[in-house]
Amino acid sequence: MKNKEQITVQATIDANIETVWNTWTKPEHIVKWNSGSKDWHTPKAANDLREGGRFTSRMEAKDGSTGFDFGGVYTEVIPHKRIAYTLDDDRKVTLDFKEEGDSVRLIETFEAEDQNPIAVQRDGWQAIVDNFKTYTEQQ
To answer: Could you tell me which SUPFAM superfamilies the record lists for this protein (predicted)?
Structure first.
């Protein structure tokens, strides 16, 4: 089996670790920032944040033309430090939360899928992280 290419996206969020962690992990926040563009949204999310726990979210075009479910199972949860999970398509994802003074650097690394160009995947995941940053800094 061929190794999947790793893609990393990141952002530095001007907020404390507690705010960053809660905004990333709580469904009532996830539905407000989890989209790659203004014409998409996440109408529902569920999160069982523990090793072996499952998360799901539904991402949809706001015009109702298309949508998909996104989910997986947590393989590692270290509060305020690291989250790792396996997506339903077996790709691996890690998130590292690094405190840097009054800010937190979020580093997300994921295995590429083979249907879309690497640049498209990177840009899409980066757009979601950028939305997360904007939303979190307004909390």
So the answer is: Bet v1-like
